[in-house]
User: Fold these one by one.
Assistant:
Number 1:
Amino acid sequence: MITMSPRARFLAALRVQPTDRVPIWDWVNHPALYQTRLGQIPKYYDGRLAARLSISLGLDACWVPDGGFMGLPSARWEWQDDARYTDEWGTGYQIGAGSWPLAFPIRHPIRTAEDWNRLSDRLPDPDAAWRSEFARDALVEAKQEIAVVAGIRGPFSSAWMLMGLEAMSLALFEQPDLLNDVFRVTADFWTRCGLRLIEQGADAIVVHDDQGSNDATIFAPTRFRQFVLPHLKREIETLRATGAPIILHSCGNINAILPDLVGTGIAALNNLQRAARMDLRAVKAAYGSALCLIGNVDATGLMPTATPAQVEQAVIECLAIGAPGGGYILATDHSFHEGIPIENVLAFIAAGKQHGSYR
């Protein structure tokens, strides 16, 4: 097979089509990598620099979020001090050590139906042009060399940010209509954001909707199917109808709802978290003929502490399981975060290129 461009390789793998080698991709949440490779650390996420860094590292794609991605610091938000801000939805966030480029929710605007009614009267505009700025900048920088994957939220993660996990869980029983409406409205909101990103040229969409803890799904599978799945499926199906491949990102143990998630029509599943007992071999055997799998190299236990040689062995192990038959993209099960030594990131990428060939 002829050598493919990174973009062509990545998109072919998403469609479980033949490639010259296994593509390599990950979230580069590592300020020191920006400094060493580009000579600067962006204060806020920057689509052009994200693409430039991904190209410099030899990745096949880069990730860029919607400009209003929940949890993403921005100069647009209302800042209380250097570490705390309130976003367009009214959720308060705190930037923590090691959290770049994201922040953690510390204050949630919705507790009651009255709170939701007030918020739903002044929802953010999903069609605002600034939301696609990261994608447009990355596409200019990428020059069709690498794929540009745009990130949006799903209904579950959105409700979590707006209500907090405790209030969201209580609402299952005490305010089910409220919870269902939050899921519905946020899914529709992010669908419109995703459609605009596709119109602007994004090669694929990743829907971020963490459904699992390390041990099990956060909602019981029956509750997930009743409350979350209809809205998540509608979001994915609408985006998929454009022809763009849709990736679902979910941390945690989601084994119990895998058939439901695959049934939404996603092209790919990320991140197959090892610490949450997501078994790449089992998922590959069950779904690998029709679903691209992304991830499974341990980003929390292995990548921060291993030697480069141990990283190489972990990459070889995942390639041996995921690569046969195609439809596998090499990635960690979280990100290239700043707790990982730079030499291990470079060893990961080098090992993928050395051992991932289909020739």
Number 2:
Amino acid sequence: MERETFTFEMFEHAVDEFVECVQDGISCTWKMIRGEKEPNCVLLLCKFESEDKNIEKFHATFEVKSSRRGVKKSDRNGQLVIECIVTPIYKKKEDLRVTTNFYESYMTNCTLLVGGREMHVNKMFISLHSDFFFNLFSSDVQDCSLDEILIDGVNPDDFARLLSAVYPNPVLPTAETAPTLLKLAHQFKMRGVIKMLRPLMICNKTLEIGEKIALAERYELEELLEHCIGSLKTANDVKKLKNAPEYEKFSDSTKIKILDRILTVL
């Protein structure tokens, strides 16, 4: 019997759904046995090494695609028997939708390589939502037969959430994810997502007012700028803003609007 170390990811409320990952979580012991009737699948029997009594034993099947997971034939009875330590990571249902949006299917015709992760997409669909990809896939710029594209310098989870905002099974942005997605939406020229993010930026509670104004200037979010300036109610609010590290970089027009607000408040 061989002993290997594996890391998988499983999703809350979707116990049978597993994806390989590299995070830490609850340790458990697995036995993998090749099924006689389905030789291309592996049966995983799990025994958790956890003190949490609410976690139950369960099993799932995996298709054997390569030996990189340590999947090898055993000489004993011609069956595969592997004992390994695996780390399951519980994810929210939203994360499951983000992941499944980019599985390979008959509708996908291009692979995006983002941070070492393969994301299968349909070129026409993402071109409809992104001027960046429209230009990339345009015959005037690139060969339309291009079926694998490297996307550098982008967090794969953030990028997946960006595209998932416009997918048929969407994962909509939140006020918390809006600042990160705003930067990516501008980078990949997704005007529909930018419009979606504008009200969420106003609702965001994690950014200071100086940070919001800086983003409003950078990405031309006039509604956010007006909201931030209108939120100055007291002399202390104004003093706090003037002490913000972003203040000196504000444009003259924004500083004039702030001055007008100060005169109104005082």
Number 3:
Amino acid sequence: MALGTIASRVTGFGRTAVLTFALGTGILGDAYNTANVIPFIVYDLLLGGILQSIVVPILVRRRKADRDGGVGYEQRLFTLVTLALLVITLAAIAVAGPLLAIYVHDPVKHELTTIFARYLLAQIFFIGISGLFSAMLNTRGRFAAPMWSPVLNNLVILAVGVAFLAVTGGDATAESVTPGEIVLLGVGTVGGMMAQVLALLVAVHRAGFRWRPRFDFRSMNLAEIGKLATWSVVYLFVFQAGYAVTANLANRAGSDAVAEGLGYGAGFTPYNNAYQLFQLPYAIIAVSVITALLPRMSEHASDGRNDLLRGDFGQGLRLSSALIVPASLLMAALAPSITVLLFSYFNTSTADAAYIGEVLAVFALGLVPFTVFQLLLRVFYAMHDTRTPALVAFANVAVNAGVGVLAYTLLPAGHAVTGLAAGFGLQYVVGSVIAWLVMSRRTGGLGGRAITSTIARLYLASVPGLIFAFAMSLAFTTLFGTGRLQALLSLAVGGGIGMLLFVIFARALRVTEVTSLLDTVRAKLPGRRGGTR
């Protein structure tokens, strides 16, 4: 799973980088990127939250309890979801203009964003089918295809980005882009999601699923789904309301930066690109752990085994933290080097890329609380509790939106988006504390002392590497200035030796999770059997 996630994220960054080369970080890039997140938002609000939070636990229970092993339930569910997705997709395309007004206030940017959205909103249908296929595969213990299928999506869109670069010569702007070039981006992006669905279709077919449309939905006990889904939808509406505030403020900051004549993009695209990079350690490490644990946690919760549920949570969090803690600190120290090396080509200047790094550095500091919160959510969902996460979300969003408004109001346009990233991290600090206290009381404790001890030692072990990486970044900047050479040297020397220092100090501090991971890696090396020579 981790290898599939790595391949997905690497190709995903290739896709993001090429699109950034092609579109830049100004109005054109903001318009495309804003339009491209709307299908995911609409899907999450109207259907995705239901699938993500309750479908896996329900399918696990149905496979155990139903005489047919849950086959009939899956047939009805797939039929119902397909019909719902068709209606939602067509409705979203019809109201694209008013929908985009929530996220974009500038008239010129709104018009261009709406044009992109009329193509990109077609992704809603394929996003939904992909999510349902993935849930069905996960309940069968098949995790590889959902992790690998996004690679096809990324490769298709990467090819579209290269074609756009070839057509435009790498200097496209909001004023110069043609209708044909917009069609290339719009249709090509949807084609990527279609390729992902086709890959998953093959996987579910091999897993034994054969769709036979069934419309006897009453036997699905929709009241149970509705009861659980109500709070899932509340949770998502609250979070997406907060995201709408963030996206609107980021787009406003970008327009303000253009009006003030800043020499770099400072709007939604830097926020979006930094967020995608920030997700990399979480996606590679924690998502793999969470995906594997959720069916098991659902079974333990269904059997009333809170002791095993606590064990799953503690194990998952400690293993995830063993790599996420050092990754977050090294990412914060080396963020400008990462983004300059990745993005400073063609339509994106070094200054554009460096600002993405400034935003990424702040995002990175919130990686650990973000991971803790996501794992806590899965514990609630395993217990069929969607109400508590929804209520906690109000506190999260209040912090995020409040900090965001303050950042936009008080900071210069060129740094407002950095403040938005700070609000993102702080909301998960608050949310994790609240969710932890609630779940700990419900399960008789979450092993907080052991988890806190592990995470504290991980942070302590990361400090020498953090200092070294930051020092190398400053030294190479002094010697070579800000550019790709400085970025490459900073990452190679600062990142490589910084991670080595972490391993040395983690072993000295006897962080067993790091030691076990190292033993696992050694066991996989050529010439070793069972971890020994």
